[in-house]
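Example 3.2
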Amino acid sequence: MYLLLIALYAIGIGAVGCAIFMFMVQKDKKKALVIGIIGLLIIIGAMVSNKLRPSYEKESSILVEETAVTNEKNKDRLYACKVNDPYTMFQYFDESKEKAEEFCSRFKVGERYDIKYRFKAGTYIILEVK
């Protein structure tokens, strides 16, 4: 999926670049406009498809670099415990700030943990720690 998105970005940027070049050298402006619009649509489609990836659950081993609890509730009126891995930020949500802090206190910086998480709408949500 990742490589497909990179290919779509490359094709879209190439089409926009081709359209700009065609405008500069006074080639057929109608073709240049069509190519430019198609390139923009491909770029926008790649951006949208990145957010519309399906939800899935998975188990993984993470190395904790940092943990933090938010001071304010998010739009869903939940506090978040954020656990940073070298590659990803995993989150745990709870209505109570104390429970979120208690969950975050389970993680020690520099240690490796096996977790089960869900990817949904661009967010990695921790379901359980093993």
